[in-house]
Amino acid sequence: MEETNQIVALEGLAEVARAREHPGKRPSLASIRVSPGAYLAAASVLTFSSGLLLRSQEDLWALICLTAAWLLIPLLALSDRIAFDGVRLVRQGPLPFLLRVFSGRERQLRLPDFERVDTHAVRTLRRGGRVRYRYRTQISGRGGVFVFASGGKNYRRMVEVLFPLIDEEKMDVRTRELRHYLIDPQTLNREVAALNLASDDVLDGATANFKLKSERGDQLQSELTAADIARATQLKLLGNKLRIGGRLREAGEAFRRALLVLPKDGWLIYDFARLLRSLASAQDDVRLLSRSRAALRLAELRAGPDGRLFSSIGESYLECGEIERAQRAFQKAIEFGKEKFRAHLGLAEVALRTGKLAHVIHQYRDAAESSSEKALLSYSRREADYYALLNDDDEYLSSELRRMNWLQQFVRIRRLAARSTNASILVALLAPYVEPGVAGLAWALATSSLVGWVLSLFLGRVFAVRRTAPSE
User: Fold this and answer.
1) How far apart are the first and last CA of the chain?
2) Distance (Å, rounded) from C-alpha 198 to C-alpha 81?
3) How far apart, in whole angstroms, are the C-alpha atoms of residue 147 and residue 155?
4) Into how many domains does the chain fold?
């Protein structure tokens, strides 16, 4: 009887283990298409191959390649999505399903396993006082890496649902800004109308001529009412939302009005410095970049004992390349702040840029001690062990330097091969109308360049992975 009970108990435990490994399907709270770069590359290679097959009189194979490039690949790209069900990120679609069948593993990353969330912004279009930004977010952890880009309501939905659940210490500055300020254009228009910002004609040159000083001096501070402060706070939030939305000129007007009321607010000055940096990048204006750095220094003076603000200022200094000021800001963040993980990471980045490996190891170990998050603890310890190995093992350091040099070479080769392929294809298409003999040489060069591009792409991914420590 006892044996029967033990067997039943073991079967129950096995069922619990299987349930944990394969939880029931949850509805997706947000879903977004993966970045289509890999699919576009595959479609380009297949299209080029179909052209070569046509030249070789292989019409059937050429048709198959062309159909796959222009029909199958787009369908796979459209159906390949990243979904969030409240617990994990998971890849969905035909291709991830096939990979899961053959490998036996599902591409997923649980929320507690997130280690870093980094967002990069790319300016895609500029018109008047408005800039169109494309945001690319990368979420990495021990379970893998997920990358998705903005382009519509699906990205906003993912930010709205996912980002508030992530610990702020795992996010970089731009990701935190998206978390707080990214909203849909219709809601943003209503907020602009509610606060009665000036029209575009009035706003010409308003930001560029603005001074970080109240026109009525310190007398204004004694005359402020609760309504004035509340409105200035609303203008500050609106300015950040407009900046994230690419409406830089209107953002400048919102900050101008807010700073007239709160000229000594450290966070407000810091946000205005971020706006000036965006304007400098959009207009290629060195003077605005200089003013942005000056505003960051003023925000540092007005930060008081706010550790979070010092940490954010330090990250912005790093973006500007001001290493010494970034180091001082991070040290103040550690001195005044309770959450010190990001500051220690910043000091580790400063030490890495100045070539001080021992300081890098020290800062990562301090970061591990300052965080209670299991994923952050694992990440910082792993980084500390990696740089400690580089510092202690000359042979391993040499091998890693060779790997990084090869990686840089493959990146250069890939760029050169891409340009050579495009130029050769253009020559091959135009040559028959001028000199038919040149077309064959152009096709041969294009083929060689494409093969070089594919090889450099795969080898670059291989060399991008850190090598394991040598066995003792």
Assistant:
1) 52
2) 41
3) 11
4) 4
- The lowest-confidence range among 141-145, 303-307, 418-422 is 141-145
Both 290 and 342 in one domain: the answer is yes
Alpha helices in 56-144 (DSSP H): 59-67, 73-79, 94-103
The 10 Å Cβ neighbour count of residue 104 is: 7
- Asked whether 235 and 259 are in contact (CB, 8 A), the reply is no
With 80 as the cut, is the pLDDT of residue 371 above it? yes
Facing residues of 118 across strands?
138
Asked, for residue 3, whether it belongs to a domain, the answer is no
Distances (CA, A) of 4 to 8, 18, 300, 382: 6, 21, 71, 46
CA distance 374 to 377: 5
Q: Could you give the CA distance from residue 255 to residue 229 in angstroms, rounded to a whole number?
A: 13
Across the beta sheet with 81-84, the strand order is 30-33, 81-84, 88-92, 108-110
Residue type, 24: G
CB neighbour list of residue 136: distance below 8 Å, 6 or more residues apart: 35, 119, 120, 121, 122, 147, 148, 149, 150
Say how many CA atoms lie within 13 Å of 274 toward its Cβ.
Answer: 25
Tell me the pLDDT band of 222, cut-offs 50, 70 and 90. low
- List pLDDT tens digits, range 432-443: 777 777 888 888
Report the distance separating Cα 164 and Cα 162, nearest Å: 6
Report yes or no on 471 lying in a domain. no
To the nearest 10°, the Cα dihedral for 423, 425, 426, 432? 130
Token pair of 171 as six digits: 């996010």
Residue 470 backbone class (left: φ over 0; alpha: ψ -120 to 50; beta: rest): beta
Report helix, strand or coil for 121. Answer: strand
DSSP annotation of 418: H
CA 243 to the chain's CA centroid: 17
> Rounded CA gap, 464 and 469, in Å?
15
Is there a single domain that holds both residue 163 and residue 236? Answer: no
Instruction: Give the list of residues 6+ apart from residue 422 with CB closer than 8 angstroms, or none.
Output: none
- Residue 321 gets the label, from left (phi > 0), alpha (psi -120 to 50) or beta, of left
Residues 197 and 270 in one domain: yes
Question: Residue 469 falls within a domain, yes or no?
Answer: no
pLDDT confidence band for 425 (50 / 70 / 90) = confident
How many residues does the structure list for the chain? 472
Amino acid identity, position 397: L
Spatial contact of 86 and 141, defined as CB atoms under 8 Å apart: no
Residue type, 67: T
Res 258: pLDDT: 93
Rounded distance between C-alpha atoms, residue 8 and residue 365, angstroms: 47
Angle at 246 between CA 179 and CA 178, to 5 degrees: 5
Range of the domain at 26: 8-31+83-176
Is the Cβ–Cβ distance between 453 and 416 less than 8 Å? no
Is 251 within the bounds of a domain?
yes
